[in-house]
Amino acid sequence: MLDTYNQTAVEAIEAAIKIKSHKRVTGPAIEDVIKVGKLMSDRAKETPSPKVLGLMLKENYPEIASLQPCYRSNCRWLYEALSGERDADILEVLGVSRIEDFKSQNPEVIRREYRIRCKEH
Fold first, then answer.
1. d(CA 56, CA 50)
2. Which of 45, 78, 39 is nearest to 60 (CA)?
3. C-alpha–C-alpha distance, residues 47 and 74, integer Å
4. pLDDT digits (tens, 9 = 90+) for 2-43
5. What share of the chain is helix, strand, coil (3-state, %, to 5)?
6. By three-state DSSP, how is residue 87 classified?
7. DSSP code at position 24
8. Radius of gyration (C-alpha) of the chain in whole angstroms
9. What is the pTM of this model?
10. Residue 68 in contact with residue 34, Cβ under 8 Å?
11. 80: how many CB neighbours lie within 10 A of its CB?
């Protein structure tokens, strides 16, 4: 059953619905990607087992579970990078002052570009 009192979950579910329905040309809004990433990060801290996390998502957050696992993982990575939990140099490496200024809002593209640029340094 959905915990409607959890604002993060509600926002992430709404974001997942928007992400699923975005137009390929424009891509998802970065705010929606970050909302999904925050929920994934919070839930991963509570549920360290990826298998259990996947089952919990499927049961409690089917809209988020419907996103591809690698996409959810990249949303989580982007949220954690922007919040300084890991890869805190993301903005510097990507050469932007805000993630919204990057050429793509797709977390998979952002992560790939980050890895490529890290190898170049």
1. 10
2. 39
3. 18
4. 444 477 888 888 888 888 776 565 668 899 999 999 999 999
5. 70, 0, 30
6. coil
7. T
8. 14
9. 0.83
10. no
11. 19
